Amino acid sequence: MAQELSEKELLKMEVEQLRKEVKNPRSLISKTGKEIKDYVEAEAGNDPLLKGIPEDKNPFKEKGGCTLS
Predict the structure, then answer these.
(1) Distance of alpha carbon 13 from alpha carbon 7, whole angstroms
(2) What is the CATH number of the domain that holds 42?
(3) Angstrom distance (rounded) from CA 12 to CA 6
(4) How many distinct structural domains can be found in the chain?
(5) Which of 1, 21, 27, 69 reaches 20 to 30 Å from 14, CA-CA?
(6) 66, part of any domain
(7) pLDDT one-digit tens code per residue, 2-52
(8) What residue numbers bound the domain in which 41 lies?
């Protein structure tokens, strides 16, 4: 699609996108970084990658071995 548009049309689209993005509210990283850190620490107990999955509830546990004869 982009190949079918002229350079002028592509630049207009880019300007429109930038106008939309400039309206997005911005926050200081000092504030949002702390919020993200607090959230991650609060949810760490529920994270299966950190605490693991009980063997009886693991859907990917191998049911049986493979034997060659």
Answers:
(1) 10
(2) 4.10.260.10
(3) 10
(4) 1
(5) 27
(6) no
(7) 578 899 999 999 999 999 999 999 999 999 999 999 999 999 988 888 888
(8) 7-57
Retrieve residue 6's tokens.
């002229």
Whether 50 contacts 44, CB under 8 Å: yes
What confidence score (pLDDT) does residue 7 get? Answer: 92
CB atoms within 10 A of CB 1: 4
**Residue-by-residue DSSP string for 17-42:** HHHHHHTS----HHHHHHHHHHHHHH
Q: Which two tokens stand for residue 10?
A: 């592509």
Nearest one of 23, 3, 2, 22 to 13, comparing CA atoms: 2
Q: What is the rounded CA–CA span in Å between residue 51 and residue 66? A: 29
> Does some domain include residue 28?
yes
The pLDDT score that the predictor gives to residue 40 is 93
- 63 occurs within a structural domain: no
